[in-house]
Structures are given as structure tokens and as C-alpha cells.
Amino acid sequence: MNVISESVKLVMEEDPLRPLVLGGDHSISFPVVRAVSEKLGGPVDILHLDAHPDIYHCFEGNKYSHASSFARIMEGGYARRLLQVGIRSITKEGREQGKRFGVEQYEMRTFSRDRQLLENLKLGEGVKGVYISVDVDCLDPAFAPGVSHIEPGGLSFRNVLDILQNLQADVVAADVVEFNPQRDTVDGMTAMVAAKLVRELTAKISK
């Protein structure tokens, strides 16, 4: 994780480069966000698209697990606001941790109600910018089956595009994680979807 943080800082020294990091599992978001926040000199706002909150204090004895990355980010003070969108697999601890850190959790069961808000977000005012973290399993498996933790009932690709394209923000960094090529059995469909996400984020960062 220290290697990841130092590598991200090296990229950010080459103005005007901004890091777009490809996973790997979601554990990488902690060292990337840490590096971005430290390099910019303050916290960022985070838009996190995922089926899971990844905010558990410790998962299977590992505080730096893919399921704990956002707990470490919030504990470190690297984010002011954390918006989690697409959640549909969450435990009591996940909700309690969300309340503890003041996380804005938008579950799929209320997406139809929340949709207008989520497709017209304005983030980053008063902080150093916005970080976007996209776990490919935020998408319904009909669109992206090649992930390790399949959760039906997710976002459509169009939903994700609308959220990203309409977002008003200075996007300073991003990641795309949790694509699993070993499970991408439908003619590389998830790889294509992940590549499209990378393209969209590249365009958003470069504006």
C-alpha cells in the first residue's frame, strides 16, 4: 500500500497529470485516496459506486481488506463527504459504520426515489476536489457478470453514465476496481464495460 501511495504521488508531481488507477480489488482505494489527499493538502469528496459499502472496521481479520478500505479513508480524515451509490448488500455493521462516519448511503431499494438527486450531483466545493471510485459490481450482473461478488438488482450502465456525466465536480483522481476476467464468460462483455468506464472517467478528469 505504501508503494501504491508513493506511485500515485509521483504521477501527481507531473502536472497536469491526474491519477486514474485500475484494480485489483477495492483495497487499493485507501492508499490512492490517502496519497491524493496528502498531495493536495486536504480532504476530498468521494463518489463511490458499489454494491457493497466496503466500510467494515475489519474483515476476516484484515483491517486493510477490500471490505474495509473506506473505513480507513474516513478514519484518516482523507474525505469530507462520502457518497455510496448502488448499495444492495449491507449488514448492520455496514449501516452503523456509515452513521459513525456520516456517510451518505444510497441503497438500490430506494434508487427510483433518489435517482433525480444522484443524477444531478454537485460535489467538491470547499475541499481539494472529488475522487470517484467505481467498483464494477455496482452494475447489475446483466451488464457486468465478470466480477467476484455478483449482486443482482444493480445499476444499469445508463444509470452510471448519467450519474458520472451529469456530476458537477473537479475530479482530481479516480479508480475502477473489481473486474475479474476469470468470471467474464460472456465474450469479454465486462472487460468492454470496464473499458468504457475508464474512458468516461478519463474524459471527466480531463475537463
UniProtKB/TrEMBL annotation:
**Coiled-coil intervals in this record?**
none
Q: What Gene3D superfamilies does this protein map onto? A: Ureohydrolase domain
Key words, A-Z: Hydrolase, Metal-binding
**Protein's UniProt keywords contain Hydrolase:** yes
- Superkingdom is Eukaryota
Any keyword Metal-binding? yes
Q: Which Pfam families match?
A: Arginase
Q: Which family does it belong to?
A: Belongs to the arginase family. Agmatinase subfamily.
* Protein name (record): Arginase
What does UniProt list as this organism's lineage? Eukaryota, Viridiplantae, Streptophyta, Embryophyta, Tracheophyta
